[in-house]
Amino acid sequence: MGDEELVRVDGVDLCVETLGDRADPAVLLIAGAACSMDWWADGFCRRLADAGRFVIRYDHRDTGRSTTDEPGHPSYTEEALTNDPLGLLDALRVRRAHVVGLSSGGGIAQELAVRCPERIASLTVMSTTFYAPGGPELPPMVPGLRAVFDAPPAPPDWSDRSAVIDYLVADWLPYSGPAGATEAELRELAGRVVDRSVTVASSGNHWLLTGGSTPPEHSLGTLTVPALVIHGTADPMFPFPHGEALAAAIPGATLLPLAGVGHEMPPPATWDAVVPAIVEVTSAA
């Protein structure tokens, strides 16, 4: 779709794709844990680029075409995943960017906005929450998803493409809301992920990471950049009050509810609302 390349960051290769005019404001998309850039749909990225944004999406370590470690043996810490976006911006010679983070990518975006305000022009977080103790008491994940966490399916034969796709779809489907991604859409996404990944099984290394830095939640009240919180009303991982509380904690933040959407990338039916909201918040900086 755009220009895809491997960029050297902190001793590893990160696969990055850019779309749009480099003279336009840069928007850096940060996916969730164990997620490659494929989660940022092509059509979504095109809409942002067509609206006058220089769109950057990338594969985290151990996802997609970026450097991968042996499954079960990550050689890096949570801190590395947080620092990678800054190293990526440096490599692309982008001084300041608008960040858009999904799920744990939203946690990374929060930390960058607090820790490096000179590099972050605006903050958009989707399907995320407070990433430290000390925030308000919020509802836990719904029982159905908790059951999946407590009894995850057995891993597939990673050399069997069809079995891996079935496994990924079964893993992802419980996160979708009634207005979210369908099984057919997730199956198409899983195929792209499998076909682009160096080692699909390595993405599970994200769940083994330790060594993150001090989370920034107690400092969110000091943020001065424009902020947008996008949250599905049917999110089973972080129920909707998580989004409401996060928006309330960031001065001047706008909350955009997505009716019937779960813990997932905003589906195409929501893009007519989501893309203009991102364009607006990235225009206010």
TrEMBL record:
It holds the Pfam family Abhydrolase_1. InterPro entries: AB_hydrolase, AB_hydrolase_1, AB_hydrolase_fold. GO terms for biological process: glycerolipid catabolic process. Residues 25-264 form the AB hydrolase-1 domain. SUPFAM superfamilies: alpha/beta-Hydrolases. One of its GO terms (molecular function) is triacylglycerol lipase activity. It comes from the Bacteria. This is Pimeloyl-ACP methyl ester carboxylesterase.
